Amino acid sequence: MGDLKGFLKVTRQKTQYRPVCERVQDFKPVFKLYSQAQTQEQASRCMDCATSFCHWACPIGNYIPEWNDFVFHGNWKEANVLLEAANNLPEITGRVCPAVCESACVLGLNDDAVTIRENELAITEFGFKNGLIRPNTINKRTGKQVAVVGSGPAGLSCAAQLNRAGHNVVVFERDKKPGGILRYGIPDFKLEKHIIDRRVDIWKKEGIIFKTGTDVGVNYPAKKLLAEFDAACLAGGARVPRDLKIEGRDLSGIYFAMDYLAQANKRLAGEKITADKIIDAQGKKIVVIGGGDTGADCVGTAHRQNAACVVQIEVMPQPLECRSKDFPWPSHPLLLKTSSSHEEGGKRYWAVLTKRFVGKKGIVNKLSCVKVEFEQNSNKVCPVMREVPASEFEIEADMVIIAVGFLHPEHRGLVAKLEVALDERGNVETGADYMTSVSKVFCAGDMRRGQSLVVWAVGEGRRAAYNIDKYLMGESNLPLM
């Protein structure tokens, strides 16, 4: 490492955010990028720790110590080469990844971890700004035709790797533009959509064909897919939401989180939504059910739509603020996370169970809730939830957003038409080689492993590409991670 004592001289610099009063007025990024000097200074904190647990914790095996060292010495070109070698979407993970690598940082044992995510983002943005990231020439084509169905992070990464191997790749996407959850799920204040377009434009110039507005299995026959391509990868995500099937669920004014977020992104992009379909928080009392990242995205979106007030409730107890013995280093700890959206206002309540929705004239106007607690049983398995006696209370609501996770991929259309086998959770089942029960059909991402992180989807897409290339050619020079 360039400065063996850098971690003793420099403290971790927190992410710089725009003032709350300013950022809630628009959907522009909430954070500010580090300067080159700041990034180099922060990179100096990366230690010569011999065993890089950050690399071990990263689902895509990023070469973190190496590119931090390059940045510290001002070798931005080399840093970009290493970053791009392991990650097809560093400009995305640098913005939205929870940075599980930082939880495993050796420096984190007795100090604040290295700013790995911010450094990653600074490297890739330097690369784009200075022309280091540009289309590569594919000198030799194999003649093999590969279809990738779904253009989320798994599908895009898989397509990029297969194209790099020389195959002719077509990406099918049922929405108007590629990106999947990146475009239609994550709000612009966390990920502006021109960031996606910038990378997709590079891949188009490299030869990848994108066919949008094409729902394979619905308006594009599944049999045609099998007939025209030598291999196919299903990467459609896990879009079926988990519901709350309780009394009053049929009332108007109750929406799924992804329906709300997707529409907000479409409206911001200028897509027309008919008046009777608009989901808007303006002037309303909003209750978000679910305490995860998706729920937080809904909170931030509601703030920007000028909601009267926002309340977020979660059935699980409030996590600890510091690592406990239940989450020893280098495991990723379950800690209290206060996002930029939470800092903008609203209230959060933990250990709250929604019992029923209450309405007036067919429209929801409040939630009937009860406090819960969790007890460890004698068998030391999952804690048992029980309602706290006499703890019932109500929360007023003009609009409710359900953000309690997802069940599995959609089975209608492609999955049903191909008749691929499903596992006990309803996800597409594959072997270790990512191939489904149908010959030459592979699967990757949330569609295969269930709802997860963007960085896991990138890794899934890369591993699927390796196995598809090996299936087509007998061997593969693509990295397995």
Task: Give a written overview of the molecule.
This protein is an alpha/beta fold. It has three domains: 6-129, Fumarate Reductase Iron-sulfur Protein, Chain B, domain 2, CATH 1.10.1060.10; 145-239 and 407-473, FAD/NAD(P)-binding domain; 243-404, FAD/NAD(P)-binding domain. It is 33% helix and 17% strand. The protein contains 19 helices and 18 strands. It has helices spanning 6-9, 20-23, 36-43, 53-57, 64-72, 76-86, 90-96, 100-103, 116-129, 153-164, 181-184, 193-206, 222-228, 257-268, 293-304, 340-343, 414-418, 446-449, 454-473, and strands spanning 16-17, 31-32, 145-149, 168-173, 209-212, 231-234, 240-241, 254-256, 285-289, 309-314, 347-350, 352-360, 363-375, 384-387, 393-396, 399-402, 406-408, 441-443. The strands form five sheets. Strands 5-4-3-6-18 form a five-stranded parallel β-sheet, sandwiched between helices. A five-stranded parallel β-sheet has the order 8-16-9-10-11. α10 (153-164) links the parallel β3 and β4 (168-173). α3 crosses α9 (116-129). The radius of gyration is 23 Å and the shape is globular. It starts with 5 loop residues before the first helix and ends in an 8-residue tail after the last helix. 43% of the residues are buried. The mean pLDDT is 95.
